[in-house]
Amino acid sequence: MHNxxxxxxxxxxxxxxxxRRITLRPQLLEExxxxxAFGDLSENFxxxxxxxxxxxxxxxIRYLENMIKTARVIEDCSSADTVGLYDKVTIWLEDExxxxxxxxxxxxxxxxxxxxxxxxSPMGSALLGRRAGERFYVQVNRxxxxxxxxRSIEKGQDDGSVELNRF
Length: 167
Hints:
By secondary structure, the chain is an alpha/beta fold. The protein is built from 3 helices and 7 strands; from the N terminus they run βααββββαββ. The longest helix is centred in the N-terminal third of the chain and has 30 residues, at about 5-35. The two termini are about 20 Å apart.
């Protein structure tokens, strides 16, 4: 499986990976060493917390390494009047009779609470390539889907301002 990422996604991941390896890893190892010196490890909360933070950092390092290793670089190839990556799109949901605005982003930058949806989500994949005024169908799962209409498209670009997801 390949992860479809932009050049900026990869750049941000490499920067975070360097920070975690070079700066954060030695700090966390030192914290574990200091906490271990506090005594009995079975009742040493500081030691357990330090180990947990160290392990969390190592997990994130492995995740970033895997994402970078399996990445396939993509670019937005949409025309000026179609929905592409980083565009803000206002849509009309027919069943709900309401309007929503979404920005279509890569999976590593999605945040529904901030109005950013993945290009791989049902709505995101249904939106790509659509034009203003176009009616389309969103297939959520095998048994459910709905119609929506593109009201407007505000062209955007990957300027690096949208942060990567954390876990």
